[in-house]
Structure formats: C-alpha cells, structure tokens
Design brief:
Blueprint (H helix, E strand, L loop, with lengths): L1 H29 L22 H16 L4 E6 L5 E7 L7 E6 L6 H5 L3 H6 L3 E5 L18 H15 L4 E7 L1 H9 L8 E7 L5 H13 L3 H15 L9 H7 L4 E6 L7 H10 L4 E6 L7 H4 L1 H15 L5
Helix pairs in contact: 1-8, 5-6, 6-9, 7-8, 9-10
Length: about 325
C-alpha cells in the first residue's frame, strides 16, 4: 500500500509539473499580448529575423505612422466561436476590380507587415482589406490561432469581402502566420470570388514550427515538451498543433499559388517552404529572395517581388464582364 501511494504521489507530481510547464508555454507563446516590445518602441529585433532583422525594422518603421493615419473604413465579422473580428479597408481609386485581403503575422499588426507594400498596392487601384487576426489588435480573442483557427476566419472574411465589393476578384496575401492561415484555408469552401494566394514565408504547421524552435529558443528537447505544450494548448486554446497543415491543404487546393520566401529564413527554413510549394498541384510561381531572413523578401527583392505579384494577379483575376 505504501509503495502504491509513493507511485501515485510521484505520478501526480509529474502530471502537475507537465501542466505547469505546458501552461507556461501557452501563456508565453499562445496567449494574447497587446503590448509587444519591438524596435519601434525601444525593444530589440528578434533573433529569428536574422540576418536581415535590424535592416527590416529600419526599412519599415518610417512607414508605420503614415499607414496608421490612412482614412480606413472598418468591417467586422463573427467567428465560428463567437468572436468579433475586425478589419481596416480602403476602396480602390479607381476600383480596378481586384480586392486583396492581407493577413499579418504572429504578434504583429497590419502596419508591421504591410505598410511598406501600401504604395505599391495602392497604385494598382485595388481594394485593400487589412485583417486584425484573432487575439491581435482590434479583434477579440484570448488565444492566438496559429493558422489552425485563423483558417476558418479567413474563410468568413472572403465572403465578407465579396459582399463589400460585388463582382471583385479576391486575392489573399499573408505574411508568416498570416500566410500559413491563408494556405490552410485553401482546402475550405472559400468565396468563389477568391482567385489566388500570395503566401510570404508561410509555415507548414504549428507542430513543426514549435519542434524547430523549442530547442533553439529554450534549449529543450522537442519531445516531450512540444507534446505537453500541445496537450495543454488543446485544453486551454481549443486546438492541436497539427489541426492546420499547409502541405496538406495545398495538396487539396484548387487555387493558384505565389509562394515567396528568403533563403536565410530561420523561422521557415527553405526545405519547409519547398515542401509547401511542391505540394501545390495548381498553377504556381516561386520567388526565393537570396540573403533574406524572415519576412524580408519585399525589402531584399523589391522589384522582383512587385513584378511577381502584379503578373500573378493579372494572370489569375477574373475577366471583366
């Protein structure tokens, strides 16, 4: 009996430690954070953005304020789990019949990821819709969805965009987690107006991202820590780390793909990017920005990036009726 109690106590303590460790990771990496330290407010650039992180912030920061001061209109939807999600949008002047929905990355905002592209897109006369992803910015939500939940939000936003801009051709442009969200939405029933996906450094799955990063960031073995993390996250945030998978979705997608990545990306290694690209069986184009780290391809290969996007949209937009 004494031996049984000792074993029972040991197992209980071990389970409690696992729960504490898992919940700590959820709080650090999944739970909403409205105050994020960045070089804009005196913080440091993440090591995951090397080798181009400092240059990327220097390139982007001067563009944040003018972007945030644009005369946006606001739209909102209700998510499948009853969150109010919001987006800022601008109408094309003149409206050229194309709408681009932008999905920003992890612990980011529309300005961080897309302010630098604004002048380019605006010059083309497109309607521009900038989502605040769940648990970010103006949208509700306590836990970040990492694409696994956001893919369903993207699905609803495509239908909202089609209501806002009848007869438009919709393209989805995502950065990092936002790119994973649109990639993983591609096998869902999106609005028929959606004509293509532009994915900049989108990852394959939350599971693979954390298995790559847990060792590098926290110097812990991926197994069992990611498994513990996932089990607690499923209980707390309501999803598992393989619920969304960009490779799986691309294999089933009927949409053309423009995939963009840097060959020095530490967050989304090139082999991961190529597995996503290779899985797509539809029309596709690829831009690998030499020397670019995470989310830096527009800065590093600016003209090639703009040329690829313009040609991709012109090729796949609906013909004018």
């Amino acid at each position: 009996m004494k031996a049984f109690l000792i074993v029972w106590a040991a197992v209980t303590v071990l389970l409690l430690i696992c729960l504490v460790v898992g919940y700590t990771f959820v709080c650090l990496l999944i739970k909403r954070q409205d105050i994020i330290r960045s070089p804009e407010n005196g913080g440091k650039s993440s090591s995951l953005l090397e080798p181009t992180g400092d240059a990327l912030w220097a390139y982007n920061i001067p563009k944040f304020r003018p972007f945030r001061e644009l005369p946006f209109e606001t739209a909102e939807i209700r998510s499948f789990d009853s969150l109010t999600l919001r987006a800022d949008f601008l109408r094309g002047e003149p409206d050229t019949g194309v709408t681009v929905i932008f999905c920003h990355g992890y612990k980011s905002e529309p300005a961080f990821d897309f302010a630098a592209m604004y002048d380019f897109y605006r010059s083309l006369g497109y309607n521009l819709v900038y989502l605040h992803m769940r648990a970010h910015g103006k949208s509700e939500g306590k836990y970040i969805g990492f694409g696994a939940l956001d893919r369903f939000d993207v699905q609803r936003w495509t239908k909202k965009a089609a209501e806002l801009f009848p007869g438009t051709s919709i393209f989805l442009h995502g950065m990092s987690m936002g790119a994973a969200s649109i990639l993983q939405s591609a096998d869902l029933e999106l609005d028929p107006a959606v004509c293509g996906i532009i994915a900049d450094c989108g990852f394959s799955s939350t599971n693979e991202v954390f298995r790559n990063l847990i060792g590098g960031m926290y110097h812990l073995p991926a197994t069992p820590f990611v498994d513990i993390f996932e089990a607690v996250n499923r209980m707390v945030a309501g999803y598992g780390f393989t619920d969304g998978d960009s490779v799986r979705s691309m294999a089933q997608s009927k949409l053309p793909l423009a995939y963009i990545c840097g060959d020095c990306d530490r967050y989304v290694p090139l082999d991961m990017a190529m597995r996503i690209y290779d899985a797509c069986v539809q029309d596709k184009v690829l831009l690998i920005a030499k020397g670019a780290g995470h989310a830096a391809s527009f800065m590093v290969e600016n003209e090639k990036y703009k040329s690829l996007v313009t040609e991709f949209i012109n090729t796949h937009r609906k013909e004018d009726e």
